[in-house]
């Protein structure tokens, strides 16, 4: 249903480095680099960062977050570790999240601009 998503960033170079490290854990790579935008994906850009000079830091109470699918629990763990090592902050350590309809394993991080990003997988056991 969704073809691609984008987030605003204050410092394109800093954010590109952050997302290169973080998204590589999920098999995404930098595919497009333009003066004000960078696109990441597997076969085509699915996740974009766009320079928004003067943008204030995204507030935690905005409620907005983006969730990316991981293939395995280890990908979720690697996503979280890479994000924190690259200058992001943990907003929910990797782990099972019990839910009334489905059991899932996820981790939440915030990027250097406050964008909340999640990685999720649905283990069979």
TrEMBL record:
<dbReference type="InterPro" id="IPR029068">
    <property type="entry name" value="Glyas_Bleomycin-R_OHBP_Dase"/>
</dbReference>
<feature type="domain" description="VOC">
    <location>
        <begin position="1"/>
        <end position="122"/>
    </location>
</feature>
<protein>
    <submittedName>
        <fullName>VOC family protein</fullName>
    </submittedName>
</protein>
<dbReference type="InterPro" id="IPR037523">
    <property type="entry name" value="VOC_core"/>
</dbReference>
<dbReference type="Pfam" id="PF00903">
    <property type="entry name" value="Glyoxalase"/>
</dbReference>
<dbReference type="InterPro" id="IPR004360">
    <property type="entry name" value="Glyas_Fos-R_dOase_dom"/>
</dbReference>
């Amino acid at each position: 249903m969704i073809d691609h998503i984008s987030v605003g960033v204050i410092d394109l170079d800093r954010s590109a480095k952050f997302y290169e490290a973080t998204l590589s854990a999920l098999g995404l790579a930098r595919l497009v680099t333009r003066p004000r935008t960078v696109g990441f994906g597997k076969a085509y850009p699915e996740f974009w960062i766009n320079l928004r000079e003067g943008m204030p830091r995204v507030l935690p109470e905005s409620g907005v977050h983006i969730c990316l699918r991981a293939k395995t629990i280890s990908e979720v763990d690697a996503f979280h570790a890479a994000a924190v090592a690259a200058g992001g902050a943990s907003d929910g350590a990797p782990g099972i999240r019990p839910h009334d309809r489905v059991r899932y394993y996820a981790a939440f991080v915030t990027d250097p601009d406050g964008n909340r990003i999640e990685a999720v997988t649905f283990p069979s056991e």
